[in-house]
């Protein structure tokens, strides 16, 4: 099994593998191109996103700068907006539903490292997918940790750290994010 196959299977893998390094390099080059486009370059941005991301829905808008690890593991639905300075570490798949809004500096982390210091020194990593439902709004500075699913119509307050799954139709906040109240959607 290749390191790339291990990575996608959620197993421990070596991120310094030559194939993985090449894939990340291509993604970083595409992010650099995207981030250097002007505000009126909508067509060029759309083409770059189609090359960078796995799936690009209709009406996707990402304010530069935008950063990701691989890009091709990110699947975005229709009518999605990312504000400035978002980071998506798509070592595992990130799936985003329709009508999702991301405030500035939102960070989605699929990658994890060993808790044991000796094992961590080996450099191995593991990743778990993130799923964001339809009509979700993540406020500015929200961090979503590996393996999390956020249900449809959930709202996560600015600065929250999401460490576990969030149910649909709730307002969440804090570190770690907890239910504040249910929403009437």
UniProtKB/TrEMBL annotation:
Keyword Acyltransferase: yes
Stored CDD domains: LbH_MAT_GAT
Annotated Gene3D superfamilies: Hexapeptide repeat proteins
Stored InterPro entries: Hexapep, Hexapep_transf_CS, Hexapeptide_acetyltransf, Mac_dom, Trimer_LpxA-like_sf
KW Acyltransferase (keyword) present: yes
SMART domains, sorted: Mac
Keyword entries, A-Z: Acyltransferase, Repeat, Transferase
Domain Maltose/galactoside acetyltransferase: 4-58
Highest taxon of source: Bacteria
Family designation: Belongs to the transferase hexapeptide repeat family.
Protein name: Maltose O-acetyltransferase
Organism: Alishewanella longhuensis
Upper classification of the organism: Bacteria, Pseudomonadati, Pseudomonadota, Gammaproteobacteria, Alteromonadales
């Amino acid at each position: 099994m290749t390191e790339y196959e291990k990575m996608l299977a959620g197993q421990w893998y070596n991120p310094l593998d030559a194939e993985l390094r090449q894939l990340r390099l291509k993604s970083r080059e595409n992010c650099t191109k995207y981030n250097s486009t002007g505000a009126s370059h909508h067509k060029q941005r759309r083409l770059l996103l189609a090359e960078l991301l796995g799936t690009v829905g209709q009406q996707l808008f990402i304010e530069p700068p935008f950063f990701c690890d691989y890009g091709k593991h990110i699947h975005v639905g229709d009518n999605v907006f990312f504000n400035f300075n978002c980071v998506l570490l798509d070592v595992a798949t990130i799936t985003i539903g329709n009508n999702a809004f991301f405030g500035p500096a939102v960070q989605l982390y699929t990658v994890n490292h060993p808790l044991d210091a000796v094992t961590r020194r080996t450099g191995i990593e593991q990743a778990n997918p993130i799923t964001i439902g339809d009509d979700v709004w993540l406020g500015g500075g929200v961090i979503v940790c590996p393996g999390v699913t956020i249900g449809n119509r959930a709202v996560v307050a600015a600065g929250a750290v999401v460490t576990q799954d969030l149910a649909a139709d709730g307002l969440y906040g804090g570190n770690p994010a907890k239910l504040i109240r249910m929403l009437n959607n």
